[in-house]
Design a protein that fits this description.
The chain is of the alpha+beta class. The chain has helices at residues 2-17, 67-78, 140-149, 198-209, 270-280, 322-325, and strands spanning 54-55, 84-89, 93-99, 105-111, 114-118, 155-163, 167-175, 181-183, 217-221, 225-232, 235-241, 248-251, 289-294, 301-307, 310-314.
């Protein structure tokens, strides 16, 4: 990465040496209400890039021979290596928005072998920033192929940006948008999770528990996906993992959630839960919701299994608790 940054700096120097400089005219943005800010070391004054537009030819499309990485590095170099807010890459174009020290959003684009400034309606509202070099840009073609197989139709676009104020993610979607596929750092797709099999339950529960030694509630359903309610220093939070979307957090909205008793989420084995659900389904494809929490008069957690209105309760070992808690 150090070598790439030095090469990028050399590109800026070369461009600056052959032409006068011009101050950017990117759109201003409004600071957000969060504490997010440009990374340490970011310039505290407006960026003065080389005069643009400038030629930056590549051979082939951006899906070939590392072209996406080279073009993105060139855009980032022209942008002074400022913290990035959003990156878009298509087969034939790339666009990078960065945040300067005055929290202005500046956008640069590459197309037809030319780098230039661009207008954008992107605003800074406290989003997380990132370094484009940290993402697998050499695998954009692979991600396009995966997205195509998963049903993304139209003109594909690879994007890196903040998601829900939680984390920076990479996705492939389309214009016009049909569906969006999220990708891990190794360029593999975030899997779509169901709620009917033990392997899916294992992955879903693991994603929302995320190492928490205790939770206030744990659940999953076809509608809500997987969720866990955790009590932390910043209040009671709900972690959610649904479909093919990475886990995200939000403040818990239910009144009194923080008054519930915490329990060890590993007490419920996904295999035991899957068996308990199967025993209570009226048909194999009947959809069920499972909510695990500590319910009075018991002091240990129980799972409430609701299969379209037919409700039962089970203990961590899968035995029935209907006599103690229901059926409801």
């Amino acid at each position: 990465m150090r070598i790439r940054k030095l090469a990028a700096a050399a590109l800026v120097g070369a461009l600056a040496a052959c032409a006068p400089t011009a101050a950017p005219t990117g759109p201003a943005s409004s600071p957000g209400s969060t504490s997010a800010s440009p990374e340490p070391g970011a310039s505290t004054s407006a960026l003065t890039p080389p005069a643009l537009p400038r030629q930056f030819p590549v051979t082939g499309s951006l899906l070939e021979s590392g072209n996406a990485r080279r073009v993105t590095a060139a855009l980032h170099a022209v942008a002074g290596d400022l913290p990035a807010l959003k990156l878009d890459v298509t087969v034939s174009s790339a666009r990078l928005s960065v945040l300067d020290g005055q929290r202005r959003v500046l956008t640069y684009q590459w197309s037809d072998g030319v780098i230039d400034q661009a207008t954008s309606d992107l605003q800074y509202l406290g989003q997380h920033t990132f370094d484009p070099d940290d993402f697998p840009l050499d695998a954009v073609a692979q991600m396009f192929d995966i997205a195509d197989l998963l049903g993304v139709a139209g003109q594909l676009v690879y994007q890196v940006q903040d998601y829900r104020g939680q984390q920076v993610v990479q996705t492939v979607s389309s214009a016009p948008e049909t569906t969006t596929v999220f990708f891990r750092s190794d360029a593999t797709a975030v899997p779509v999770l169901g709620t009917m099999t033990a392997p899916d339950m294992l992955m879903g529960i693991h994603a929302v528990v995320d190492g928490a030694p205790a939770v206030l509630e744990l659940g999953f359903s076809p509608v809500r996906g997987y969720w866990a309610v955790v009590d932390g220093a910043d209040g009671t939070r709900v972690r959610t993992r649904k479909d093919g979307i990475p886990t995200f957090e939000a403040p818990a909205q239910a009144v009194g959630m923080d008054q519930r008793s915490a329990f060890d989420p590993t007490l419920f084995d996904p295999v035991v839960l899957a068996r308990a659900i199967a025993e209570r389904q009226r048909t194999p494809d009947e959809q069920c919701e499972v909510i695990v929490q500590v319910r009075a008069p018991l002091t240990t957690p129980s799972a409430r299994i609701d299969c379209q209105g037919q409700v039962h309760f089970v203990a961590p070992d899968g035995s029935s608790l209907d006599d103690e808690l229901g059926p409801a």
